[in-house]
Amino acid sequence: MAPTSVPLDLRSQSPLIRTDWLSSALSNKAFIHSMFCAAAMHMYVLGKASAIDIMHHRAEAVAALSLLLADSNTSLADSNIAAVFSLLCVEESLSSAPYYSPLHAAWEKSTDQRAIHYNGLNRMIALRGGLGSLKTNKCLQSFILWHRTVHAIALCQRADIDLDWVTEQALSPSAHLSHHPGQHNYMAEMCRVIGIEHELLNLVVQLESYAYTVSRWYSKTPSDMCPWALQNAACILECRLLDYLSTISSIAGDSPPRLSPGTPPLQYQRPPSPSSRARIHMLAHTALTTALLTFTICISEPLSRPFYSFHISLISRLRDALQSLSVADFAAAPDVYFWILAVGAFASRGSREDRWFKSTVDGVYDGVRAGHGKIGERGGVEWIVDRAKRCLWVEFVLDMWVKKLVESQSSLR
Question: Which superkingdom does the taxonomy of this entry point to (predicted)?
Answer without folding.
Answer: Eukaryota
